[in-house]
Write a structure and sequence with these properties.
The protein is mainly beta. It has two domains: 340 residues, Distorted Sandwich (Beta-galactosidase, Chain A, domain 5); 102 residues, Sandwich (Immunoglobulin-like). It is built from five helices and 32 strands. The strands form four sheets. The chain has a 16-stranded mixed β-sheet that branches. Strands 2, 5, 6, 7, 8, 9, 14, 19, 22 and 23 form a ten-stranded antiparallel β-sheet that branches. A hairpin with a 3-residue loop joins strand 6 and strand 7. Helix 1 runs antiparallel to helix 2. The longest helix has 13 residues. 42% of the residues are buried. The N terminus is likely disordered.
Amino acid sequence: MKRRGFLTRLLGLAACGMLPMPLVQAAAADGDSHGEGEPFSWDGLRDTARQLANAPYILPGDARPSWLAAMDYDDYQALNTFRKDHSLWTGGDLPFQARFFHLGLYFHQPVSLYEVANGLARPIPFSTQMFDYGPRVKDKVPAQVGDLGFAGFRVNTRADWDRDMFAFLGASYFRAVGATKQYGLSARGLAIDTAMNHPEEFPAFRSFWLERPTADATTLTLYALLDSPSITGAYAFVITPGDTTIMEINTQLFPRRPIERLGIAPMTSMFQCGENDRRTADDFRPEIHDSDGLALWTGTGEWIWRPVLNPHYIRVNSFVDDNPRGFGLLQRDRDFAHYQDDGAFYNKRPSLWVEPLGHWGQGAVQLIELPTADETFDNIVAFWNPAKPIQPGQELNFQYRLYWGAQPPTQPAVATVVATRIGKGGIPGQKTSTPSRKFVIDFQGGRLNQLPKDAKPEVMITTSRGQLSDVAARPILETDLWRCHFDLSASGSEPVDLRCYLRDAQGALTETWLYQWSPPPGSGA
């Protein structure tokens, strides 16, 4: 559906008394971004989302004209070069600039974009003058194009006008960077019915309102309207750049119909192979992943580390909690030598940490792992799933902060897991007649560093099935690491849930390591 088609739909709802007219009038204004504009407010956006949820969902169509739909991947790359001198807020002394993505390729529906200044919203009109159409596509673009709208936008800061701070592009996906300026995993506005026995639903941000910053602003505020067959939502983002980019997010959600699995603060990442999972590692690079584990800081204060992996089949794990303090998909391993990738720079990919604000109640952090043989395919998803059923007519509010950077804002006081390795059981280098798998966990930090080398911390380990043997923990000489290892013998094909941490008389020395090991098909262990 073209932008004007979407606005026509909003106007139709307004005519029936279903939408607040000031917001709709702002959307329906002509393309003059220098006009007077119309009032915009968070309350008005929230009312729009609430009333939109009472209307039937209209599936947007493909808004690309035929000449644009015919373009291939290379065409789209040549097409999508934005001219920086056409950035929003360029030419002044403002600390942020917004630049826009061209419709095309995978992005079939435009989003409506508005600038908000002094409480008034003005549309940001599309123009071919905004893009540098290269020789490959210049002759494929008609002389008269009209208002195509935009696929999304990205924002740069005064600290670096050439490299993005964050971008919104496609459905409700967005990404941000930290100090390394390297993109990696993505966040989403919502996830609906991920990894269910029916197709996943992908809500989309349909409109954005970008608030003009002041000359001395250190944050940028923007708003978004989300729509999907099952739910609508109003979103407010307050974004602070830095070595860690911080997004404070306020969401007001209005379900249209029951939702079986609602994902709040979802994040999507990639894990193809790593030190704990090398079965697809026919590659000169030892590790290939955007994230190497899920970290949890539970409502009771326990720190948990769950390494992610590339499974044989789709796996869903739920970590039940009440008012979680934080969770995230992290890239803990930042040693270039462990990746050997001087193009993708996986060692520089940001971690993403969610800090819930207010009372989230009971629910579970859910981790979904999908098999992949392709590093361009995001196969790891994590989000908060509320325990209470989602029903139409409800109004749900979730507030949280996202931290994009090398480290979460809060670090465990105990030692953390820095590596998980798995291999053939028994004594290394010797044959064994009993099939088993060896698990090796390296911990670092906390009170472990103060323990004498002859200390004997207690290994607290449990398994859902199978037999454990050769359980031990010891320091690795000439390092600040402690290593815990054990062997597991388990027959059959059912997954094995493992749990391990170290403690002494004073309490826990390490975070809790969780793992779900699935015997490979045809395995004897």
